Amino acid sequence: MTTARIEPADRTLQVNGITLHYLDWGPEGLPPLILLHGISLHAHYWDGFAVRMRDAFHVYALDQRGHGDSDWAESYPPDSMPKDLLAFADALGLEKLTIVGHSMGGGVGMQFAAHHPERVERLVVVDAGLSLSAMPRPDNSVQRALAKDTFANEDELIEHFKGLLPGFDPATMMRQAMHSFRTQEDGSIVYKFDPALRKRMGSPEQMEQRRKTNAETMALLRKFTAPTLLIRGALSDILSPEGARETIAAFPNGTLVEIPDAGHNVPTDNRVAFRTAVREWMGLEA
Fold first, then answer.
1. Which of 157, 207, 243, 267, by CA, is between 20 and 30 Å from 128?
2. What is the pLDDT of residue 135?
3. Where is average pLDDT lowest: 166-180, 183-197, 204-218?
4. Residue 124's beta-bridge partner residues?
5. Following CA atoms 247, 249, 252, 256 in sequence, which dihedral angle do they give, to the nearest 10 degrees?
6. Average pLDDT, the chain
7. Could you state, in order of their start, the residue ranges of all structural domains in the chain?
8. CATH topology for 9-140+204-281?
9. What residues are paired with 190 via a beta bridge?
10. CB-based contact 176:182 (threshold 8 Å)
11. Is beta strand 32-36 parallel, antiparallel or unpaired with respect to 97-102?
């Protein structure tokens, strides 16, 4: 007996003047689950998790603006991605959403919930926070990963990431690299995501803008009553334990879970523990 591999449908949608690419995992007739990736990543980041959530949800994984196979944009103000999510949901006729967002995607999910609480059934935020204590140190694993943007070949790419990711596996890395990077005519490998986003990261202007947006979001979320799960990687150098506690305290119906043997990339660092935590919180069989 053979089991057919489940593959998503590649789709695109025009929203807010740009084309967004997304993966539609189906199946039809179930409530929608929206998966939002972090900075420099893509919809395929969620492949393993998406397959295992199809028993309860119609799963959509989005390439956010400037990432993956979605268009680069002229600008990336703090409210642009939440607005993209709203336009995406409206275009597909999705009224009530379950949102799972990692890192930058977690921030998008929190902003969306703050401004459109009536559209959110439940929210899962992965290794992202809002308080001042949740602001990552300048020297962190994400900054180190993005410090190099051009690689001569696959060996150089693997060597760069080997010391940055807990439980590093070259085969998994290369599967993800298919969607994170593109090969140029000279054979060198570069990121797909918009360099304009890289330039903004860690700049004084961006950090100040982020502090202001986070403070406004936290204030609004104190009235957001839908169930919310905040997941922190126990080895994370992006979201501190204090930052996680302060962030989840803003949610009237919040739960905090820490996943062992996982850094910032919780969904890929410890796949089973992450999936189990999410499903058990949702009341689904693990």
1. 157
2. 72
3. 166-180
4. 100, 229
5. 80
6. 92
7. 9-140+204-281
8. Rossmann fold (3.40.50)
9. 150, 182
10. no
11. parallel
Query: CA distances (Å), 208 to each of 76, 203, 205, 212, 269, in order?
Result: 15, 9, 5, 6, 30
pLDDT in tens, 153-184: 988 888 888 777 666 677 777 777 778 899 99
What are the CA-CA distances from residue 178 to residues 15, 73, 82 (Å)? 25, 22, 26
Could you tell me the pTM of the whole model?
0.93
Mean pLDDT value across residues 189-194 = 92
Please name which of 87, 96, 33, 99 lies closest in space to residue 60, comparing C-alpha atoms. 33
Residue among 133, 163, 164, 168 nearest 250 (CA) = 133
Cis-peptide into 27, omega within 30 deg? yes
Residues 136-160 pLDDT 10s: 777 788 888 888 889 999 888 888 8
Tell me which amino acid residue 240 is: S
Those residues whose C-beta lies under 8 Å from the C-beta of residue 205, and which sit 6 or more positions away, are none
Q: For 173, what's the count of Cα atoms within 13 Å in the CB-facing half-sphere?
A: 18
